[in-house]
Amino acid sequence: MLVISQVSKLYGDALADVLALAPTDLQVPGGETLVLIGPSGCGKSTLLRLIAGLIQPDSGSITFEGTRLSSENILQVRQRIGYVIQEGGLFPHLSVRDNVTVMARYLRRDVSWIDSRLNELTQLTRLPEEMMSRFPAELSGGQRQRVSLMRALMLDPDLLLLDEPLGALDPMIRYELQQELKAIFAQLGKTVVMVTHDIAEAAFFGHTLVLMRDGRIVQTGSFKELAQTPAEPFVEQFITAQREPMAQLVEALR
Amino acid sequence: MKAKQRIGVMLLGCCTLLASNVPSSVAIAIASAEEPVSITIGSKGFTESVILGEMLRHLARQAGIEAHHQRQLGGTRVLWNALLSGEIDAYPEYNGTLLQEIMVKENLQTEAELKQALTARGLRMTPPLGFNNTYAIGMKAELAERLKLRTLSDLKNHPELVLGFSNEFMDRADGWPGLQQGYQLPQQNVRGLDHDLAYRGIESGTLQVIDLYATDAEIAYYKLRALEDDLNYFPVYNAVIVYRADIEQRAPEVAAMFNRLAGRIDAPTMSRMNAQVKLNGEPESAVAAGFLKQALNLDVDYQIQTAWQRFWLRFWQHTGEHLILVGISLSAAILFAVPLGILAARRERLGPIVLGVAGILQTIPSLALFVFMIPLLGIGGPPAIMALFLYSLLPIIRNTYAGLKDIPPAIIESAQALGLPSRARLRIVELPLATRAILAGIKTSAVINVGTASLSALIGAGGYGQPILTGIRLDDMGLILQGAIPAAVLALLVQGLFELIERGLLPKGLQIQASDVKLAS
Fold first, then answer.
1. Helix (H) or strand (E) holding B498
2. Which residues pair with B242 in a beta bridge?
3. What is the least distance, in Å, from the CA of A168 to any CA of chain B?
4. Which chain B positions have a beta carbon within 8 Å of A94's beta carbon?
5. Is this prediction's pTM over 0.95?
6. What was the ipTM of the complex prediction?
7. CB contact (8 A) between residue A83 and residue B414
8. DSSP state, B151?
């Protein structure tokens, strides 16, 4: 269970502080997938980075499985969190194997444990074995995201955070990876928080969708709830804005 | 990993090898008076002073004392301070310089007062050697004839003349400022340059009036006329030897030997010796020995070497000295600058300060930086190494800083999100990614260092600058090239060496996408 209570974040500016996130409450039950969605600058990435402890909140608290995040325990807590970002964030100077195992090796995990874990993950993400000795520059975008996911899962974290994990992929690969990723989430049963700006992707993954705007949560609920009982006109606008152009194109072909 | 270690060991090996071959100048500065008695002679940066310096060295050896000669150490101030601090024991000077320049504030009038002032500083002076090498102002005899110039007062009527004076003359109290005032000279177009270059300037016509030393061999050679000092402005510059009083205890025979030169060298003799070196290309050492044989009937034992022997001996000596200067200063700079660069990149507040200070150091003209080191560290190897060290810092600091700052934020964030502590992040992720930038900084520093090290000869640290300085003094292009070519080759070799090191140290993953990596230069 991830509990966010009254968390807020200001970004300092020479002239005035900009409110990146108004005081926000949110709860993610264990094993669920929650999707943060909204237009650019709505605060969804800020919220995800607060959960990962990459930035510190100006107020409020974040508690994961009973542990409140603080600057003292952040390094330990991060080992229980897997984090995947848009371009993968892979270390260009390390091979795929070294990228995935870097933290395990730093923690001096047993070599045989590392090898067997690596084996499990290659099967899970269906990354060809011969990719292990390649460098990130020699991989395709989709392969890079698979490696990034392997790295995030290496230490078997309880919480998986994904920031637009498929955002940089071309549509075909993206569709394929969406299917695989959802299967992996279902198989692993981990708590997942994902950020996306694509409503279809959000609906596809999320048990719960959190629609945000201007640093505030507009509505929380399933896709069905958002679509059928929008809390504000904005919710409807946001959904139709992404659906309508395609619908019009299809209509025109009839 | 293995390859990196091997290269590390190789580098260490190189440094030790360099350090074991310490050049004489460095050794002298390090070893102090506990050694078996030996003395160090200094000389100024012109031929006459070097010949006299060689003469002193022969005399000391004749008295059974080991003597070193730090040739063409620089200007009067450098030698005077080195003598006061005991880094050199004796050097040829002119009494006019002592009275009118070094101790001008004390307003000494007589020979006795001068001797007293020297004694107060723990110094002695021989009686005059016999020639007056006063300053004179000269121009091409032909031009002087055409403009009907005979005396210095006549210069007043020709404000259009271009004047070129030795740098020291430009600034000395008894030099150009006093001369201009004394004769009310109107010329505005006055430049300072090396004394030996001035002769070339007057020959080519870019200069029309220069300062001369009365015993310069070139006066006759270039057909110059010395203008008459009709107001008796220039004082007498009788050559003397100044030496430390403690020589009289440490090596009384040497002091006695020095005094034997008194009154033995008249102006034509000195002028002839200058000509032998400057115009005939004979080694100073041989000319000095020849004089001692003729005037004092001393058989000086000096090695007669063929030109090639001399060339190779000098070449290896200068190469050794240059390598030590570069090796020590660059290694120290790497050891200091990389951590400073890291500090600058990681501490938001400290960054601008570190970069600012290193930047200011770099704006000091290199020549001045070398001279600034003299009051702190004396002459020879240590101040040169310190100056080169300071000069090598900025490129490495700046590139380390930029290399770390240029790492994409997404990569830093990924490393943070994994839970890697700050130090581990630096070691595992950030430094490997900044390798190329850091090595580029080191390479830049190394090339600058090799070039700048040529200036070390000016403060007595030897190196490839030595033949360049001598070459300028003797107007000998061959000698200049003997310093300039090896210095250039060494710079290329160093650059090549660092490219090899880069190939060994640069992570393989970065070599693949070399073209994508943004480089800070």
1. helix B477-505
2. B91, B125
3. 14
4. 507, 509
5. no
6. 0.86
7. yes
8. B
